[in-house]
Design brief:
Blueprint: E1 2-11, E2 14-20, E3 45-51, E4 61-65, H1 68-94, H2 99-119, H3 121-127, E5 131-137, H4 139-144
Antiparallel strand pairs: 1-2, 1-4, 2-3, 4-5
Length: 145
């Protein structure tokens, strides 16, 4: 999936890019964001670091590539795996413990999963890193306008 964003800061080999969303649901509403009343207008901008193979400058508008398949896999790791883990641990624990303790143990398993995700966060983040493809509009051109 490709997108457009503005470079707001730089570090070696990477650029922090701010991407503005039209709406949280990804739809273009005639009345603007908030028409469906499901959007949170405070969440209209996303900032993320992306690989910068072309050497962009602060203020440049850039096109980037986001690996959808990798992001989908990470979403499964964050949302589906803990749910399935909780269900499996609950049924296993319920054969040994009373129901209340089975619930506590299954919640503990989910917490442990999230702790593991936090530990391996950096390698997983690198797996789904976006890459800047090209400069759409140079910051230098904006100064001259």
């Amino acid at each position: 999936m490709n997108g457009i964003g503005t470079v707001i800061s730089l570090r070696p080999g990477e650029a922090e890019v701010e991407v503005k969303r039209e709406s949280a649901c990804g739809m273009m509403h005639e009345g603007g964001c908030g028409e469906c009343h499901g959007c949170d207008s405070a969440l209209r901008e996303i900032r993320t670091f992306m690989t910068d193979p072309i050497g962009v400058k602060i203020g440049d508008r850039v096109e980037f590539f986001s690996p959808s398949r990798n992001i989908l896999l990470l979403s499964v790791l964050v949302f589906a795996v803990p749910l399935l883990l909780m269900i499996a641990v609950y049924f296993i624990a319920s054969s040994f413990l009373i129901e209340a303790w089975s619930v506590v143990v299954s919640l503990g398993a989910a917490v442990l999963w999230f702790i593991l995700l936090k530990i391996i966060d950096k390698p997983l983040g690198a797996y789904a890193k976006c890459e800047i493809l090209r400069v759409v509009y140079c910051a230098e051109n904006m100064d001259n306008d």
